[in-house]
Amino acid sequence: MSFQLNGKNAVVTGGSSGIGLATVELLVAEGANVAWCGRNEQRLTESKEFILSRYPNAKVLTATCNVLDKQDVIQFANNVEKEFGGIDILINNAGQGRVSNFENTADEDWLKEIELKYFSVLHPVKAFLPALKQSNFGSITNVNSLLALQPEPHMIATSSARAALLNLTHSLAHEFSQYNIRVNSILLGMVESAQWKRRFAERSDQDQSWEEWIGNIAKKRGIPMARLGKPEEPARALVFLASPLASYTTGSTIDVSGGFNKHL
Q1: Bridge partner list, 188
Q2: Is residue 231 exposed (0-12), middle (13-18) or buried (19+ Cβ within 10 Å)?
Q3: Angle at the Cα of 193 from the Cα atoms of 201 and 221, rounded to 5 degrees
Q4: Does the predicted TM-score (pTM) go above 0.90?
Q5: Which of 28, 123, 138, 212 could form a disulfide with 73 if both were Cys (CB 3.0 to 4.6 A apart)?
Q6: Residue 195 pLDDT > 90, yes or no?
Q7: Mean pLDDT for the chain?
Q8: E strand spans, 113-227
Q9: Could you tell me the residue range of the domain that residue 104 belongs to?
């Protein structure tokens, strides 16, 4: 089944690696024109070369951009609109987690988490909103975490910030319905990343394969599917929510955690 994205214009923040790059590739494969940004210029260049090596006729645009810098994002939005002539899809995929409990989380660390989780979404939404209003099926999709509903004591600041982002997403869905813009999110569990690859390289038992090592971690954490997610799996959920296939879905979430969720 097609995602019905041929010729549509999409933007992905944090698109140079991991889930972001997997999302970019799926959008391009579906015929969308895609712009993505990132902070690391070399990784951004490599991601563009990777996409064009697989899809040489794709219409793409990349830009070095810090989503926490309002002017950076405005410039990125202006460049995208100039190149593509309009925007239909915005996928916000920027932000990492902070490992800390209450006692070792300083006041400034709480503020940094709120800034990262909020303004990595707010800046792009504000910058691209005028263009999204002109689309016939505008959509905003935010990458969030299962921590929003299932907080972890060792990630207390990130958990609370993620819950705030879930609330914000729901509020924007209601407010933007008047513009025919849908707003949804996915809730991530544990997904394979460069960080996990680095830890694997440093494993104590060098005879363990990647599948054995990562499977043991998943079992210890109580993930029913006994593995971590692959970047393309949340990417599929993101593209579905962003596409016309989810035309009657707004203010909603898709859980992509391999059954790690413990709530109803």
Answers
A1: 145, 256
A2: middle
A3: 85
A4: yes
A5: 123
A6: no
A7: 95
A8: 139-145, 182-188
A9: 9-191+231-255
